Amino acid sequence: MNTSALGTFVAVACLVATGTAATGTPTVLVGDPANGKRVFFADGCFYCHGTTGAGGGNAGPRLAPDPLPLDVVRTKVRTVSGRMPVYSPAVLQDSEIKDIVAYLQSIPAGKPAKDIPLLNR
Fold it and tell me: How is domain 29-108 classified at the architecture level of CATH?
């Protein structure tokens, strides 16, 4: 892995782990969450990532809460990578990707396990 690729990998790993930009600031995005939800379901994202972006099992990775920044998501959607299909701009416009990320940002985090009585017996 060259230095540039390693730097990109580290930056993406940081974003996946923290849900924040490499600077430590929360990711902020303006988009239409309602349209993002519509596109997320209409284009079949939920088949792999779940209806709330939780992923899991043999499905795609967790996307929400705290999704990756728009530019990282756009790159992932537009580039061949693993089992993730490529969506060209003719199929999924940049504005729709922005809306999907806004939808994922709108999904609240679940309760921590310590706050669920059944899990603490």
Answer: Orthogonal Bundle (1.10)
